[in-house]
Amino acid sequence: MKRTLSVLLAIVLLLPSFTFAGPYDDLIDNARVFQMGIMGQGRIDLDKKISREELAAIAVRLKGLEYMKDFQKQSTPFKDVKGWSVPYINIAYDMKLVNGVKKDFFNPNGKISYGELLTVLMRILGYEDGVDFKKYPEDYYSKALEIGLGNLYIPHDEVVTRGIAAATINKALDLKMKNSDKNLSSLQGSYYINIPGTSPNAEDYIVDNKVYMRDLNFNTTIVGVFSGVLMGVSDFSEYKVVLLSKSDKILDSMILGRNGKFSIENFDISTLSKLQGYKYEIYSPSGNLILWDNLD
Q1: 212-295 is classed in which CATH architecture?
Q2: Distance between CA 209 and CA 33 in Å, rounded?
């Protein structure tokens, strides 16, 4: 697909400006979203409606977690989910990026509204239900406009096409994660099409997006405890785990050994710290930030 897209883009770029139509503009403006594989490896189909299972897969890719599908079982909490989308829906659901339509049902082939797309993208950016927005769709739509994600000219209940999704995702990639100085694009791999104005800065690239965390334990009830084990590479010697407040105050850190296990204890669990919230960052031996997330 990447080769086909590159050839098509080259042809379009050589055409006189008066021949550009809406679909070509959409393709050029949002090319990196397709080139990065976020929309999947099938046809471009800008006018095709996005399904709920496709949005779950997009959310997992945007979060930089597609590699985790290989570790997922084929069992699922939803009775109506089967086939290729099972691991994607499981991951997106576990990460609280998507919800079912009711108990035991996900409606994988259902269509997505613009408000629902914005909601999922804001969750990926670190915004939280019940904290950053409460009333749907008003709060969610307003927040999306406030952070520069939403488009005032698209109604919240409009059914989303791949073209609308790509344009919105393209905007999201350049937005900063909540309580972070990193853009969403830094969660992606390092292959991008070379079109002026669309490639992220080199410093935003993640070094190894195969690193992930298992057995995470975070507790602030009596004594502060943050523990887990990093997975994805054979040797985690000299990797560093940093525990921070969401206001970027460093609370503690730990240099890891080969097995990637860590445990940080007795950090600040005062009322003020709890109100500020917690997050973690993982650094490679060379000092590159390779993984981070909020701790709720």
Answers
A1: Sandwich (2.60)
A2: 17
Q: Tens digit of pLDDT for each residue in 223-242? A: 999 999 998 888 898 899 99
Angle in degrees, CA 87, 92, 96, rounded to 5: 145
Could you tell me the pTM of the whole model? 0.60
SS3 for 168?
helix
Phi-psi region of 248 (alpha: psi -120 to 50; beta: other; left: phi over 0): left
In a 3-state reduction of DSSP, which class is residue 261? Answer: strand
- Dump pLDDT digits (tens) for 91-107: 999 889 999 999 899 99
Distance, CA of 81 to CA of 180 (rounded, Å): 34
Domain ranges of the chain: 2-204, 212-295
CB–CB of 149/177 below 8 Å?
no
Cα–Cα distance, 281 to 293 (Å, whole number): 7
